[in-house]
Design a protein that fits this description.
Blueprint (H helix, E strand, L loop, with lengths): L1 E9 L2 E2 L16 H10 L4 E6 H6 L18 E5 L5 H5 L7 E5 L2 H4 L1 H9 L5 E8 L2 E4 L4 E6 H7 L5 E10 L2 E2 L5 H8 L5 E5 L5 H8 L6 E6 L1 H4 L5 H7 L8
Parallel strand pairs: 1-3, 1-12, 3-4, 4-5, 5-6, 6-9, 9-11, 11-12
Antiparallel strand pairs: 1-2, 6-7, 7-8, 9-10
Length: 245
């Protein structure tokens, strides 16, 4: 099971500075340095959330990925501003990247049909869920569809990975909803990641037991930056368990 650090970009910089406890200045907010930092710390995958791209309707950080070309084999998930085939094709020549849709794929069925028709290959989906219903546009808009019903339909459309974030109206829930995790794991998705719903080591342990049921990993943001977790500490903590940093 993977731990996937989230690098969130807004106004051209990351939301958080790199953590002081890793020996770097908390003032460093260069996104590509964050991606490189987590890879150097041993992460097998990093999730880039481009909030500027979400606002402007096209990816804003994709050119900076050139600094990783030829030097990384790790997976880089990219979410933000991917709304048409032109933005999808930006990432085609970078085989280490995988695009993630959060709004367009859910709201625009024509976009999904175009991806399938053009043999783009599997893509991933980020789902924000409030009270069991799917929300889009940075969790501000309900599409009126139950989360379980949406996830059940995904495998037939070629979506093989889901990042699931359980939320309230004020933001991501601090702890995973284990009942929802179990329900989602029963729906045939190849890889399910719990995103932004972990804040304690107990949360990590509670989710680790579901690897045998198909839980692919956990995507983390705040706890990695505020000092709650350090990658070195997590490696030691799970040395004999199933989580792979």
């Amino acid at each position: 099971m993977r731990l996937v650090p989230i690098v969130e970009i807004e106004n051209g910089i990351t939301e958080f500075g790199l953590p002081e406890r890793e020996g770097l200045s908390a003032r460093i907010k260069n996104p590509i340095l964050h991606v490189r930092h987590w890879i150097d710390q041993g992460a097998k995958a990093v999730f880039v959330k481009d909030r500027d791209g979400m606002l402007k309707g096209k990816p804003q950080f994709s050119k900076q990925l050139e600094y990783l070309d030829g030097s990384t084999k790790e997976q880089v998930y990219y979410c933000g501003g991917i709304r048409d085939l032109r933005s999808v094709r930006i990432f085609e020549h970078r085989k280490y990247t995988k695009i993630v849709s959060a709004t367009s794929l859910i709201e625009n069925k024509k976009f999904l049909r175009n991806i399938v028709a053009n043999n783009i290959g599997p893509i991933a989906l980020w789902i924000d869920s409030i009270d069991g219903f799917v929300y889009t546009r940075d969790a501000s808009h309900s599409i009126g569809k139950r989360t379980i019903d949406l996830v059940r339909s995904l495998p037939e459309h070629g979506i093989d990975e889901v990042f699931f974030c359980n939320r309230s109206e004020s933001g991501p829930l601090a702890h995973p909803d284990i009942d929802m995790v179990e329900n989602l794991l029963d729906l045939g998705i190849k890889a399910l990641y719990i995103a932004d719903n972990v804040s304690t080591k107990e949360d990590l342990r509670a989710l680790a037991v579901y690897e045998k049921d198909g839980l692919a990993g956990i995507a983390l943001k705040t706890p990695l930056y505020d000092g709650t977790f350090a990658m070195k500490e997590l490696r030691e903590m799970f040395h004999h368990e199933t989580i792979n940093i």
